[in-house]
Amino acid sequence: YETLDFAKFNVVFAYLSPVVMPEIWNKVQNEMPPGSWFLSYEFSIPGVQADLILESEQGAPPLYVWQL
Fold first, then answer.
1. CATH number at residue 32
2. pTM for this structure?
């Protein structure tokens, strides 16, 4: 993800280590266009409230969704 230009995308989906979530969130905010979507499976961004949290079934990891 570090070499990708997120400005080219309207939707970015991540399933990465929770350790890198603050770093990727910074990249998302700096590069993605307004109105685009960032989705993260299982891991939230510390201190940032998701716009939507989806659960496919009880006990399954959630999908966190943010609209820029």
1. 3.40.50.150
2. 0.90
